[in-house]
UniProtKB/TrEMBL annotation:
The keyword ATP-binding does not apply. The keyword Nucleotide-binding applies. Signal peptide: none annotated. Residues 10-163 form the CP-type G domain. It comes from the Archaea. Keywords: GTP-binding, Nucleotide-binding. It holds the Pfam family MMR_HSR1. CDD domains: MJ1464 (cd01859), Ras_like_GTPase (cd00882). This is GTP-binding protein HSR1-related protein.
Length: 266
């Protein structure tokens, strides 16, 4: 991902925000801090545009924790949690859009990191499949304007990643920003991801694979063996094992959560 293309992507985001009356910022309930995009929020603030934070993939996190995040993030911006995939809480989203719309019909853009579920939300709002969705991060390429309802125009956008964060591949995976098969070396980011998952959910690997190990490299070995990801001669293909773990995170098959106040500035 080149810096130039990111700069271009940001220019496009800005122009979409400028033509919106209201913005939905979609974040992943598993990691609200890392999937919240401060740069988008600052820009919106400058432009004076109202924002609703949509905590998506709520099916992956216990409801008490989601309520804590809603309360916490709600101090700054109206916040709803939903599972776009399972269509839970989506009525509340519609009510919230109506409530915060400065005018009707309203133009609402949907922004956030790749893979957080922006296109899935648009399909829900429309009531049928109009925006392509995929577990491959970076799926939506151009903006797409959809007349979802008589009073609601929604704009799907490609996921954005601040250029200054392009270096830490493990964080980019958590932000859903990387297709692991495109990584030159997926092992190091997978190791970092494993450490993060374990720190918040010690049972994650036992729950998913029925195996565990203290050491992330050893864990990758075990996962590779269990999945039959072997090289000629019977050694484990660590690269493929790393990709499998990253993919399971992207698919929500490996998961964790934490409460507000636990890390950083959350
Ligand atoms: N578990 C779970 N998965 C979801 C939910 N919403 C979307 N997904 C899945 O997340 C993946 C990404 O969804 P998209 O709607 O394509 O995400 P996007 O934000 O448009 O992604 P880009 O276009 O790559 O920026 C897909 O595999 C969806 O099925 C949800 O509420 N829960
Ligand atoms: Mg999309």
């Amino acid at each position: 991902m080149s810096r130039v293309s990111q700069a271009e992507a940001w220019r496009r985001v800005r122009s979409v925000l400028e033509m919106s009356d209201l913005v939905l910022e979609v974040i992943d309930s598993r990691d609200p801090v890392e999937t919240r995009n401060k740069r988008v929020e600052e820009l919106l603030n400058k432009l004076g545009k109202p924002l609703i934070i949509v905590i998506n993939k709520a099916d992956l996190v216990p409801i008490e924790v989601l309520k804590e995040w809603k309360e916490y993030l709600g101090r700054e911006h109206p916040t709803v949690f939903i599972s776009a995939k399972n269509r839970l809480g989506t009525r509340k989203l519609i009510v919230s859009i109506k409530q915060h719309a400065p005018r009707l019909p309203v133009r609402v853009s949907v922004v956030g990191y790749p893979n957080v579920g922006k296109s899935t939300i648009i399909n829900y709002l429309k009531g049928r499949h109009v925006a392509e969705t995929s577990p491959v991060p970076g799926w939506t390429i151009g903006e797409q304007v959809v007349r979802a309802k008589q009073w609601l125009i929604v704009i799907d956008t490609p996921g954005v990643i601040p250029p200054e964060e392009v270096r830490d591949e493990a964080l980019l995976i958590i932000k859903g920003a990387i297709d692991p098969t495109k990584l030159e070396d997926p092992v190091l980011p997978a190791v970092k991801l494993i450490m993060r998952i374990k720190s918040f959910n010690p049972k994650a690997f036992m729950d998913r694979y029925g195996i565990d190990a203290e050491d992330p490299m050893e864990l990758l070995e075990l996962v590779g063996r269990k999945r039959g990801l072997l090289l000629k001669g019977g050694k484990v293909n660590i690269r493929e094992a790393a990709i499998a773990v990253i993919r399971d995170w992207i698919l929500g098959k490996l998961t964790y959560y934490y409460r507000p106040g636990v890390i950083g500035n959350a």
